[in-house]
Amino acid sequence: MFLDGWQFHNPRPSSDFPSNNFPSASDRQASGKGLLPRQLGSTDIILAVAILTLAVSGGHYKADCLKWRDKLIRLVRASGLTMEDQDIDLGPVFCGLYNGDSTFKRWFIAKEERRRLFWLVYCLDRHLALSFNMNLNLSEGTFCVRTPLPESLWQTLHSADLNCLPSCPLGPPTQVSGTGFFEYFLPLARVLGHIIDLHHTRNHPTLGEFVSQDAVRRLESMVSQCEQDLTELELRPGLFPGESSAKLALVKAYSTYLLHVFYILLHGKWDPISMIEDNDDWITSESFLTCASHALTATGVVSQILALDPEMAFMPYLFGIYLLQGSFILLLFVDRMPELGPNRSVEEVCETIIRAHEVSVVTLDTTFQVILNSLKGLLNTNKSSTEKLPKGIPLYVV
C-alpha cells in the first residue's frame, strides 16, 4: 500500500533535457552549489533512506529511526526537492512545445516522480512527529512543490497527452479525491500537520495561553471537509478504472477512523498518565465529551476495518499510532467503571479495541502491548487502580 503506484526512473544528466534546457531549480541548487554529489540526490537513494526510516520506526529500536529521519530530511533539502517547482511553469503552452519529444516526456515523468518522493517524505515527517510527539521538519510554507498528479494519470503518463494534463497547484491537496496513497493520505497528512503544530503551540510556556479557539474551529472545519470528501468519494468521477470496490471500502474505513482520531487529538490529551490522573478536572469539560463521542464512534469503525481487513495489513507501518491514540481514552472509561457501575457498552467497545490490538501486534513492537495489557487488566478486574497502568507509557509507539 505504502508504495502503491510508485514508478522508478533513473535520473538523467542535464544533457538529456530538451534542447532549450529547462533544468529544475532543485538541480541547480544541488549541483550548482555543490551541496551533495549527484548520486546522493537521486530519487532511488532518497527513497531507500525513506523506506529504511519507516522500517526502523516499526522495529524494536524505534528511536533509531530518528537519526535516519534526520539524514532523510537533509538529503531532501540538499537535493532541492523542497523547491522543485520554485521557478518552473509547466502550463499547457509549455507542455505543448515539447509534447511529441520523448526526451522531454522522460524529463517530465522524472520531475513528477521527484514531486511524489517529496510528498512521501512529507507524510512520513508528520507520521513520525505524531509518533514521537515532536515538531515537524517540513513545515507549511517552507517548500514549493506542486500537488501530485491524479493516480489514474500517473499510471498512464508514458502515453498521456501532456496538453491534457490538469494544472496542479502548489502545496498539498486539500481534498480527498481517490484511492491512491497521495489522493487520500496526503490530504489527511496536511490536516495532521496543522494539528501537531497547534498541539506544540498550546504547550509552549509563553505562547500557549494565546491560542485562540478560532484555530481549533478552523481545524475542525478541515476535518469535517475531509469527512464530506469521503462521503462523496463513490460519486466522484475520474477514479482509476481498475480500482475495486474493496479498495474503496478500505480507504474509506481507515480514513474515517483517522479523522475521528484527529478530533481526539484536537480536543484531548496526548499523555494517558495525565489523563488518568485528571489533576485539572478535564473529564468534566466539553472537550472530554467530544473526545469520548469520537472514541466510541471510532471503535465502531474499527469493527468495520476488522471485517474488511482481518489482518489489518492495509497500513501496517502507519496505523498503529492512530489505534493507540484512539485507545487512550478507553483506559479512562474502564478505570472509572467501579465508580459509575458496570457498563456493557463500554466493555464491548474495549473488547473490540483489544481484538484490533491483538491483530496489529504482529506488525508492531512489543511495547505496544503495554496499552493492550493495561486495558485487559483493568477490564478483567473491573476496579479502579491507576497503579495497574505502567508509568512511562511511551508515546512513540508506531
Automatic annotation (TrEMBL):
Organism: Penicillium atrosanguineum
Protein name, per record: Xylanolytic transcriptional activator regulatory domain-containing protein
Protein's GO biological process: DNA-templated transcription
Entries under Pfam families matching the protein: Fungal_trans (PF04082)
Keywords: DNA-binding, Membrane, Nucleus, Transcription, Transcription regulation, Transmembrane, Transmembrane helix, Zinc
Keyword rRNA processing attributed: no
Domain Xylanolytic transcriptional activator regulatory: 63-173
Keyword Membrane: yes
Region feature (Disordered): 9-34
InterPro entries per record: XlnR/Xlr1, XnlR_reg_dom
Regions of compositional bias (Low complexity) in chain numbering: 10-24
